[in-house]
Every structure is written in structure tokens, then in C-alpha cells.
Write a structure and sequence with these properties.
The longest helix has 37 residues. The two termini are 14 Å apart. 69% of the residues lie in helices and 0% in strands. The radius of gyration is 21 Å and the shape is globular. It contains 15 helices and no strands. It is mainly alpha-helical. It has one domain.
Length: 359
């Protein structure tokens, strides 16, 4: 019996499809994802939904799960994400090595910040294990591991002092922006692409807005007014994006990160744009569920098995990048890569669904 379509799974599946397409940069279909007309992209949605889903781990308001139980579940989930990250990173490194041999091109070993793994393997592998060395396009799961490790603190703070959670999260976020504080990388010098000190704010907002009281209740009561404000701002942002107009970072006043559009630090421009965008498009789920149930069901299926689909999509997107590099890309190849990748993801998710029902 097919499972009911879930709104969180639906939007998580939508984010997974866009992340897969956008992780093959330069392909024709990238311009049809919403980031082409947006100041934010699917990463904000994905992290926001992770925070939203935290309420299901915590349990219903009238019968919350014991704190020890919640902490244990979140710890196991963090360990599962960490293990999945290690597996796909090792697979990615092997794929780069094989491609380098296949194309007789040692420069491929430098792709995605992987060079240190081959030139300084001892320190690089230590960095991989401790998440201080990350490959490009494989750097969001380390953020998730950190956020899940912080999740028990979010739950405990919300249970004991609910009014403090948002101010504390916002204070950490603003301090990181003003001081440009982030996590450093090692052994190569740099910083985490997804700064956990900033992205935790998106995660916490997802958790708070999922609830009928507090911030979530306030947003629900004023939703019509918020959408009236959001519409012209979203249209203006799309026009600016189309025209290529953006603030020159060198001209931004201090503190600079409060005014520019920076993904690593999840600057206010991005998070505000994402929240307004989500406000406008959240109701479209009802339309898809009612009039295009197969499409809604397919996305919901992907979202229901988000970790498996994300890991598979990461490997398939790397394979797509390699194929585009080897065969010079183009519309026919891009179509094959995107369609085959999404088809494989759907088949694997369907198999995972069948396996869960069989158990």
C-alpha cells in the first residue's frame, strides 16, 4: 500500500532534486532550478527542514519523549550521518583517482580540494576523519553532523527556557557574522564552506516555526500579511538576479557580512529571502498533492529516504561532472546525466520503501 504524501518529505524531495542538478555545474538544466532567480537556494530549505523534523524526534507537545531518549536518538542519527559521509567521501576520492588514470590527467586529483589526499595523505586522512578536511560538493553532511550534535542542546533549552532559544541562536549567528568567526580547515588552510555557527540559525528557525506556539504561532497568525510583503520583495530579487545586479562586497559597510550575499555565512540577505520564498510557495504543496499526485508522491518518496538519496545523488553528480568533463558536455549528455541520475535515485528510494514495508 503506498504511503501518504507528506509535506515535509515533498519539499525535502524537491530540495534533493535541485541539489543533484546544481551539483553538476554548467549543465543546461541548472538554469531551471530556482537559484537562477533567487538570492538563496535549496541548501537553506534542506537545513530548515532538518530543524522542522526535529519536532518529530522530540515527540508531540502533550506527550514529549524523555530527554534521554531524544538525546540517544539524535546521537545515533549523528553517527549514521558521519558514517555515510565517510563512505561517500572515500568513494569520491576513488572516483577521482580512477578518472585521473583513465584520462591520464593528474590535474583531476586537485578537483574539489582533494589534492592533499594524494600529496599529503597522512595529515589529509586525519583531517577527513575529524571533518577538518572536506571535499567540495561533499561538505554539507559535516554541517549536519554538527547540527545533530547540537540538537540535544536545542531541545533541552526549548523545554526548560523556551523564550531563550531564539535569542541565543540569533546571538551566536550575529556574533559569527560581525566577527567573521567560522570553523577552520586542516591540513589545508581555509574554512568550512557551511559555517555551523551561522547555519544553526536556519536549523533553529525550522524547529521553532514548526511549532504551533511561540514564533510558529505568530507566523501562522500573520501569514497573509507576511505574504503580501513577501511577493514584491521576491519579484524584486528575481529581477536583480536576472540583471546580475548585486552589492559589491568591497563597497559594503562594516560589518560587511550583514549586507552582502554570502552562502558560507548564511548572511541575512539569504536567510530572509529564503523565509519569504518559503512563505509564498509553501501552499503550492496542496495543489501538487491534489492535481499532480504522482509527481507529489515521487518527490515525497525521495524525501522520505533523504539520507540515502542525498548520498547516492552526491556520487551520481560527481559521475556527471566527470562525464561532462570527459565528453565536453552539451544538451544531449546533460539530458542523459540528469534523467538517468534522477531515475536511479527514484528506483533506489522505491526499493528502500519496499524493504521497509517488507521488514
Amino acid at each position: 500500500m503506498p504511503r501518504a504524501i507528506n509535506v515535509v518529505d515533498f519539499w525535502r524531495g524537491f530540495a534533493l532534486v535541485e541539489i543533484f542538478v546544481n551539483h553538476i555545474p554548467g549543465n543546461v538544466y541548472e538554469q531551471f532550478t530556482h537559484k537562477a532567480l533567487s538570492l538563496s537556494d535549496s541548501a537553506e530549505l534542506f537545513v530548515f527542514l532538518a530543524g522542522w523534523s526535529l519536532k518529530y524526534v522530540e515527540g508531540p507537545a502533550h506527550a514529549p519523549r524523555p530527554t534521554v531518549h531524544v538525546v540517544g536518538r539524535l546521537g545515533l542519527r549523528a553517527g549514521k550521518l558521519y558514517a555515510a559521509h565517510m563512505v561517500i567521501v572515500m568513494m569520491a576520492i576513488a572516483m577521482l583517482a580512477v578518472t585521473s588514470l583513465w584520462l591520464d590527467n593528474p590535474l583531476i586529483l586537485e578537483w574539489f580540494n582533494a589534492g592533499a589526499v594524494f600529496t599529503d595523505p597522512i595529515e589529509a586522512h586525519i583531517g577527513l576523519v575529524f571533518l577538518t578536511h572536506q571535499l567540495g560538493y561533499f561538505d554539507i553532511l559535516p554541517l549536519y553532523v554538527v547540527l545533530l550534535c547540537l540538537s540535544p542542546l536545542v531541545v533541552i533549552l526549548h523545554r526548560r527556557w523556551p523564550a531563550l532559544l531564539l535569542p541565543v541562536s540569533a546571538a551566536v549567528y550575529l556574533t559569527a557574522l560581525v566577527g567573521q568567526i567560522t570553523f577552520p580547515t586542516w591540513p589545508t588552510q581555509g574554512e568550512w564552506f557551511f559555517n555551523p555557527l551561522c547555519w544553526q540559525f536556519d536549523f533553529v528557525l525550522g524547529f521553532l516555526l514548526s511549532r504551533p506556539e511561540g514564533l510558529g504561532g505568530f507566523a501562522a497568525r500573520h501569514m497573509t500579511a507576511i505574504r503580501v510583503i513577501a511577493l514584491p520583495l521576491i519579484v524584486a530579487a528575481a529581477v536583480l538576479r536576472l540583471e546580475g545586479i548585486e552589492l559589491d562586497p568591497t563597497m559594503a559597510p562594516f560589518p560587511r557580512l550583514l549586507f552582502v550575499n554570502d552562502k558560507s555565512f548564511l548572511t541575512p540577505t539569504r536567510i530572509v529571502h529564503f523565509l519569504l520564498l518559503a512563505t509564498l510557495f509553501a501552499p503550492t504543496f496542496t495543489f501538487f498533492e491534489r492535481y499532480v499526485p504522482r509527481f507529489a508522491g515521487a518527490l515525497s518518496l525521495l524525501g522520505r529516504h533523504s539520507l540515502l538519496v542525498f548520498c547516492l545523488g552526491s556520487i551520481l553528480s560527481l559521475a556527471g561532472q566527470i562525464l561532462r568533463f570527459a565528453f565536453r558536455g552539451g544538451l544531449p549528455l546533460d539530458t542523459i546525466v540528469v534523467c538517468v541520475g534522477l531515475a536511479i535515485s527514484f528506483v533506489v528510494a522505491r526499493g528502500a520503501d519496499w524493504w521497509e514495508r517488507a521488514r
